[in-house]
Amino acid sequence: MPSRPSTPLHPDADQEIEAPGVEIPKELTSALDLGSEEDTDEEIGGGNGLLLGKERIQGHDGRNNDDDEDDDDYSMDSEDSEQFEKEERPLIDADASIGEPLSPRASPTEDIPSTFCAVDTTFFDNETEKRRTPVNPFGVNERLVSSEPIRIIRKKSRGADYGPRRLSMTQQSRLIDYIDGRLMAIQRRYIKYLSAREDPDNEPGSSALRFGLSDLAHSLDEVVTIIWYSIFKVKTVPFVYHYNVLSKEERNVLGQDGSSEIELDEITPDFLFGQTNYLIKIMGDLADYLEKFQFTSLDEIHTLLLLFAKLDNIISILIDEYSDDEDGIFEEAIVENDDARPLPSKFKQPFISNTEKIRIDSIINRTKLLVIGMFDGFKEGAFDDAVVINGKKRDHRSTDDGIKSEIQRHELLIGEIYEGILDRTSI
């Protein structure tokens, strides 16, 4: 029986050993390819030695080494040369700088004969064609949450004639009474709608059943706009996020078509007298109202998404107003005045406390689940009956492709509900 080599002993973790001094026989060195790195680089083409073709390898002194038997291993015919080029030449530019796209190698020059094709050291310097930019499967981002938002210029107003004025105590009381009355009227109308819907004696076209999801969203949107105006004295809410929800006509109405920045006057926490509590209440009431509704058209979904976007932008701006993070959406622009008087003292408390952020997070999670469930139910019946698109009923047999594209678009928009707030409140 042939003798078998003994299994080497493995040393312990704390044991010191000495490497054996046995040298590898010279006849095995070539088989193990233990040559130096310089020899390897020279063989690849860095020196003057390697010639592909029927010629022998020439040394650095220019003599032909036909008498050397060892050089027979480097002799190649034309077929071996082609095979060598296919296997050894990389297809991708591995020397590209970090951050630059990888590009395919240039084809070898045709003026070099195939029988005497030497590897040129300037091969890697040839111009290569850059890779084309890959297509974004999600379409073009238009100020999505993941993209760069609009910059808000925060103006520091110095002087009594500059910037917004705080409401007096009488004005604050009147505004609170007005907001309470509007929210109570919306709640009464909602309860009346539920009672009429469950009453079998009411006909489908009765006035009590005309209160739909779009009417609810419009009513709440008016209250949210009043709350926003009481803080910054600006009628329109800047769409820092969710700009892609707006249609072209709505962008023109808001005056934000193509704008990259918006100016807002700087305010202090003493401008607030409960507006944040009303915003949180509206978010919670809206989640309660949605439990009793179902989506019947894409127009209803669009109206609801506009309300979500407005709430998200307002609360995101309030959270960022005096954030310690310098990478927020605000920049400062000071308005100078000769008769400048000092601004009101800035309180250190944030506009929205951590307790309010926790309440907002729970409402958002609940709202997202409700809206996703409502939209799933809408998708199931979208291709069974006629679907309302832009206020017109269209038969599904002729507009299946259009409905599919609209549903896919709204799926992305629904996934971004309240994302601006979540980016600021999530742990």
From TrEMBL:
It holds the Pfam family TFB6. It comes from the Eukaryota. Residues 35-44, 66-82 have a biased composition (Acidic residues). InterPro entries: Tfb6. GO terms for cellular component: transcription factor TFIIH holo complex. Residues 53-65, 83-92 have a biased composition (Basic and acidic residues). Residues 1-113 are annotated as: Disordered. This is DEKNAAC103797. It comes from Brettanomyces naardenensis (Yeast).
